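Sat 14:20. Reprocessing the chain from the morning session after the first attempt stalled halfway. Input below, unchanged.
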Amino acid sequence: MRAKISYAITAAVLVVYFVLVGSRGVLLIQAGTPLTIAFGVAVLILPVIGVWFLWKNTEFVRNANRLAAELEAQGGLPVDELKRLPSGRVDRDSADEVFARRKAETEDAPDDWRSWFRLAVAYHDARDTPRARKAMQRAIALRKTTH
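Finished this time. Tokens:
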């Protein structure tokens, strides 16, 4: 729940920022000189890219949460079986062991979105965010084709 609140606050702050930057771009364009118009257009591009990025990221999170809810309803969410150090951090050997099982599961069933979801969780636990995101994107795409 705390993550959702943090995400909502961050998104709201970004939207306010995009509005402020966009209004500055409009003011520059309204100044009417070629230089201010060029700067105004350049400044307006930034909020457009930011809004697009925020939208795509929000869509990704919603889709991943839907898969998690569906997998939980099926009783297929991965159980946290990772050993932890006294500091609370994940033991690397434990994460590697779980990751190897998840990778083998995905190789055995490459068209099953559930195995890709669990692999994404394993990548996340191993702190490999780019691969976790790609695995989750694959799970989402597979789920859309089977839905």
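The two ends are 27 Å apart (CA to CA).
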